[in-house]
Design brief:
CATH topology: Nucleoside Triphosphate Pyrophosphohydrolase
Order of helices and strands: EEEEHEEEH
Structural class: alpha+beta
Distance between the termini: 26 Å
Shape: globular
Number of strands: 7
CATH superfamily: Nucleoside Triphosphate Pyrophosphohydrolase
Mean pLDDT: 93
Strand content: 35-45%
Number of helices: 2
CATH architecture: Alpha-Beta Complex
Largest sheet: 7 strands, mixed
Radius of gyration: 14 Å
Helix content: 10-25%
CATH class: Alpha Beta
């Protein structure tokens, strides 16, 4: 199983989502910022590294919001989403096709990676996604 970490970054009532590059697996689907944990890294170190590389920002990582496991055709992941705050830097699209700040009510307007379904339901309870 591949360990993946992601950041739930809030700005008021909106949170950050990122659109995967078209050339990658699950291309152009939306997800939370983050990536794979490398050997020897803690979850926090991996999340800080990934967001620095992909978005040009430094995070302060808080507690885990939720963890889910998902089997894709090509990979089995355990995704842990952490509450996080941008400490430094200005958001830039170094890798993603797009980045957006959305409200929980806007979740149904975006096509997310399947592994995010349980997380999205917790963020937007009672709504069919």
């Amino acid at each position: 199983m591949t360990e993946v970490v992601a950041a739930l970054i809030w700005d008021g009532d909106r949170f950050l989502i990122c659109q995967r590059p078209a050339h990658k697996a699950r291309g152009l689907l939306w997800e939370f910022a983050g990536g794979k944990v490398e050997p020897g890294e803690t979850h926090e170190q991996a999340l800080i590294r990934e967001c620095r590389e992909e978005l040009g920002v430094t995070l302060s990582v808080g507690d885990a919001f939720m963890s889910v496991a998902h089997q894709y055709p090509d990979i089995h992941v355990r995704l842990t989403l952490y509450n996080a705050v941008i400490e430094a830097g200005i958001l830039k699209k170094h890798e993603h096709a797009d980045i957006r700040w959305i409200t929980a009510g806007e979740i149904p307007l975006y096509d997310f990676c399947p592994a995010d379904t349980g997380i999205l339901e917790r963020l937007h309870p009672g709504k069919r996604l």
